[in-house]
Specification:
Blueprint: H1 2-47, H2 52-71, E1 81-82, E2 94-102, E3 106-115, H3 116-119, E4 121-130, H4 133-136, H5 140-156, E5 171-176, E6 180-184, E7 187-190, H6 205-214, E8 220-226, E9 230-237, E10 253-257, H7 272-280, H8 288-293, H9 295-313, H10 332-339, H11 347-357, H12 364-395, E11 411-416, H13 418-422, H14 424-438, H15 440-443, E12 446-450, H16 454-465, H17 468-474
Parallel strand pairs: 2-5, 8-11, 11-12
Antiparallel strand pairs: 1-10, 2-3, 3-4, 6-7, 8-9, 9-10
Bound molecules: beta-D-glucopyranose (BGC).
Protein name: Phosphotransferase
Keywords: ATP-binding, Glycolysis, Kinase, Nucleotide-binding, Transferase
Enzyme class: transferase
Length: about 475
């Protein structure tokens, strides 16, 4: 009995001391926490830094890899796939064309009636079909059977506003947003599924973007996708492709699907967060550039940073919010909404943290830390994407103004994808970084523009510019 009483008394005294100590410690801890959070952010900032010198190294590395990928099959991490697209649309195309766009959890079918230079797209009719999840991880036959019957149904519903000349078959362009090694304009082999598709089993979306934008503007020579995934395609001189052994196309040009998402270089600023994200991903060691810059991953990098801040600097209080431990819970659109929060008390940040992660009552200081983390991660991505674009411009000699005082040709880079379209801080940073890298004079003739929804209509336009009936008409 006595023993118990003594123990209780000791515990009681200890508790009283603990309360007093807690108050003192709380004050010390909260300043200690702030210091720790600041140190972690500083470290993140340093590891993610992209000063001009580094960006130039990235651009040069991109250019070197482009050369290597064009020289031989498998010569580089950059596949530099030959697309067999040697004629981009120029606006003169007329007739009825179809497109099919498979790139994510939905696919789209589309028909367009083209009216030539004066009228451009006379009428277009799209339809979206969602892919049942079991088909995304099953056999390719089932997936393509499903797509074929949805397409057949769509063709059968063609209204009277669309006209196909007598005796002609309907022609279709296929936007397929995965890396394909093509064997002709209309055939190819899938290299691997990306972005969560896992299936054992022909125009790429980036080429669609390039074609869709070129239809309205003849100076477009680079197409970039910055969405869930990322990629770039551009117009290369056919005789600058040593691995091309076929006849040189009449146009002398060939569109190359770079698959730049798979670019990697020792110059890329990689952090422990990126390493962990890569190791835990479906495709470790692959798509490293994509994992630093695209919409699928930016939010996840942020989650990892916040989790460490919660663990090591008690950013959200004494315990770590359990939801923050769920991979991919923080999507890039949420990150973007927090990053763009202009309210004095960062209300949006507070609401998102509460609603999405179950973290109530965050202080302004905490919210500011979150915004700073968004800023570091998004700007690193945007600046690296800009360096990639400058690498392409260097490769094709469009990175400087004409030397002899002659006219510098106008160069247009068309960009599509939700990340670029909706994450304004990201897109502004990308554009200003391209300018910073090229300098005032050269950047005056480089235009970077949003090519909204080029990718599906682009396929229909390519069906038009490669129509089997064109040769008949020309001869
Ligand atoms: C794919 C590319 C595609 C890009 C944009 C990447 O994950 O590998 O083929 O062009 O996403 O959708």
């Amino acid at each position: 009995m006595g023993k118990v009483a003594v123990t209780t008394a000791v515990v009681g005294a200890a508790a009283a001391c603990a309360v007093a100590a807690l108050v003192v410690r709380h004050r010390m801890r909260s300043s200690g926490r702030c210091a720790r959070a600041a140190a972690l952010l500083k470290e993140l900032e340093e590891r993610c830094a992209t000063p001009l010198g580094k960006l130039r190294q990235v651009a040069d590395a991109m250019m070197v890899e482009m050369h290597a990928g064009l020289a031989s099959e498998g010569g580089s991490k950059l596949k530099m796939l030959i697309s067999y697209v040697d004629k981009l649309p120029n606006g003169d195309e007329t007739g009825l064309f179809y497109a099919l766009d498979l790139g994510g959890t939905n696919f789209r079918v589309l028909r367009v009636q083209l009216g030539g230079k004066e009228q451009h797209v006379v009428k277009k009719e799209p339809k979206e079909v969602s892919i049942p999840p079991h088909l995304m991880v099953g056999g390719s036959d089932e997936l393509f059977d499903f797509i074929a019957s949805a397409l057949a149904e769509f063709v059968a519903s063609e209204g009277e506003d669309f006209h196909i000349p007598v005796g002609r078959q309907r022609e279709l362009g296929f936007t397929f947003s995965f890396p394909v090694r093509q064997t002709s304009i209309a055939s190819g082999t899938l290299i691997k599924w990306t972005k969560g598709f896992n299936i054992e089993s022909t125009v790429n979306d980036t080429i669609g973007t390039l074609a869709g934008a070129r239809y309205y503007d003849n100076d477009v020579i680079v197409g970039v996708i910055l969405g869930t995934g990322t990629n770039a395609a551009y117009v290369e001189r056919a005789n600058a492709i040593p691995k091309w052994h076929g006849l040189l196309p009449k146009s002398g040009e060939m569109v190359i699907n770079m698959e730049w998402g798979n670019f990697r270089s020792s110059h890329l600023p990689m952090t422990d967060y990126d390493q962990a994200l890569d190791t835990e991903s479906l495709n470790p060691g692959e798509q490293i550039f994509e994992k630093l810059i695209s919409g699928m991953y930016l939010g996840e990098i942020l989650r990892k940073v916040l989790l460490r801040l919660a663990n090591e600097a008690a950013l959200f209080g004494d315990s770590v919010p359990p939801k923050l431990e769920t991979p991919f819970i923080l999507r890039t659109p949420v990150m973007s909404a927090m990053h763009h929060d202009n309210s004095p008390d960062l209300k949006v940040v507070g609401t998102k943290l509460k609603e999405l992660l179950g973290i109530p009552n965050t202080s302004l200081k905490t919210r500011k830390v979150v915004v700073q983390a968004c800023d570091i991660i998004a700007k690193r991505g945007a600046r690296l994407a800009a360096a990639g674009i400058v690498g392409i411009l260097k490769k094709i000699g469009r990175d400087s103004a004409a030397k002899d005082g002659g006219d510098t040709p106008r160069t247009v880079v068309a960009i599509d994808g939700g990340l670029y379209e909706h994450y304004n801080i990201f897109s502004e940073c990308l554009r200003s970084t391209v300018k910073e890298m090229l300098g005032e004079e050269a950047s005056a003739s480089v235009v970077i523009k949003l090519a909204n929804d080029g990718s599906s209509i682009g396929a229909a336009l390519l069906a038009a510019s490669h129509s089997q009936y064109l040769d008949v008409e020309e001869s």
